[in-house]
Amino acid sequence: MKRRILNIVGARPNFMKMAPIHRLMLQSECLEPKLVHTGQHYDKAMSKVFFDELQMPEPDAYLGVGSGSHAVQTAQVMIELEKVMLDLRPDLVIVVGDVNSTVAAAIVAAKLWIPVAHVEAGLRSGDRSMPEEINRILTDAIAEFEFVTEKSGLVNLEREGIDSGKIHLVGNVMIDSLIANLKRAEVSTILEQLHVSKRGYSLVTLHRPSNVDNRQNLSKILAAFKMIQEKTKIIFPIHPRTRRMIAELGFEDEVRQMDNLILLDPIGYLDFIHLMAHAQFVLTDSGGIQEETTYLGIPCLTLRENTERPVTVEIGTNQLIGMDTEQIIDHSQEILPGKIRQGRVPELWDGHTAERILRIIEEKFC
Ligand code: UD1
Questions:
Q1: Which residues are designated catalytic?
Q2: Which of 8, 42, 99, 214 to mutate to test ligand 1, by most ligand atoms within 8 A of the CB atom?
């Protein structure tokens, strides 16, 4: 009989991490993967488009939990997932990343004595005011398999007293997805649609609560964008949270007046890869984009004081520049004349991470 594995996804950054694992597992002779979508992200642009583009099958279970406060969202995932786990009785639950669905699923599984595998374990920003940092620490504390993307993760887990037998440096599944989709992304027509040329624009993403829910920080960041767009076009696919906060905090007019800032609804995976790969530079507060730009060799200016992905700064193309208006403008202006920092691709970010993960799981369960 095949061993049943529950693969959990919930929010946009989960889909490209789980896709290569789930796809490979469907071909396994001894594992029976079941895909569960919590519904933390539910808009077509935040969820369905990724399933389509990543050629992921329909989830075996969709929990439809939606938005809410951290407690409500996490609790709702837990209540619904417990029913699914009791029904399907998996041998292993796999969670990825650091979103609320990740920690919720890990807790439910651990309490049902089902082992948990955490993909992207060990990353630490050291900033416990970030909801994701709490999710990472808690998930790693109860996982039986810690699949680590970069060496800092090994050090962090060891410091937290995690048994070294549980820890596996395997590389980065998100980079598996990036590599697998680069060719398909290359034929995207998004640049023509937006009337921009290769290297003729910068790309922005912004959604961290510490940046967009805070009037002072959002105002400083928008002031920098105002200056930057006078020199180069800015393409800004906007996260629903950020759109809402710009309206709530009264910045809509300011944004509308920036003639060279192209505001878009959230866009699909392939178009986004295309935009990243051909940008002059990227300005972001995302976690994953720091890694994707390092792989692509595109300069990334991260609008944060810290990162849980230090390898992107140490050997990649990432720079932590904070939220100060002058800093953002100064760093952007350094890159605009074409002065870019050459980076390297971290060890094991080679497109074969899902294979390594599967080998370890099969060794244990088959
Ligand atoms: C979540 C993750 C974050 C990840 C981000 C990527 C947590 C704690 N945060 O943040 O780590 O980087 O996803 O996008 O899990 N909304 C919609 N449609 C959707 C989803 C959300 O309109 O499909 C709006 C809702 O107004 C919601 C808000 O966005 O209240 C925030 O969504 P939520 O899932 O709570 O957190 P994110 O900010 O997306």
A1: 207
A2: 99
